[in-house]
Fold this protein.
Amino acid sequence: MTTSPFDRLKGTPSLISVRMNEEDILLPNSRKAAIGTENLNGCTAIVVFGNAIILSHISPSDPPRNDSRNHHVQALGKIDQLLDEHPGMFPPATTVWGIYGTIDGEAMEHVVAQVDLHFSRRGFGVAKDYYEVAEPTIRQTPAAGQLLVHVNTEGTRVYLENRRIVDKPHPRRAAQSSANTAGASSTGLSTQQIDTQRAVDTQRAQMINEAQNAQNAYQRLLNQGQSQQDAIEALTRSLMAVNPGMKYKDAQTGVYNRLQYRRQ
């Protein structure tokens, strides 16, 4: 039987294995080469790509202690703790992948929206992919319910089950390439002007990203049969959940601004 990428590293010293409702980080100076998880069957996996990699495996809920929303608030908060503990590892170019289970092609859209809003508030780009949920007794194919992030000298590859969903240059190579490009710049702008323009570009990109994530989440909720009012209410509550202390009116205004934003 053909083994999966995860199975080939399972049980070896090279792999950080993340269990359900846990999270871990793969640092660039680590002797580990990969971080992964298995038994995703309705669970959500979050992968944060910076100069280090965070992986979280989140169950749909945690009865009887927490409903789904509060359970995900706590799990996302633990990811925030890792981000705050390693701020130099996660620059503005950091991206996040949300991996969601689907049943008959439908995901838990309130979870998708919650994750989108949470990380867009940090200014991170958010991408997503899906796997099909099935009963354990019929999940006999290699790699069912597995996720693996593998780093080597060539770059970083992410395998969802047996599909490669990400293939990106090694962070150090990317940083070196960016430095070389910056050094070869012939714009004639001063360093201060370049830094100012980058700050403006970063802020604009953040605005665009937050707006796009909110608009996508809003449309998904409408597609699920929710009314416009209920969809806006759900997005408002999600925004308040990831921003403790935010007033309802401020959160609702933030949602409206994102939904009305149009890229110039």
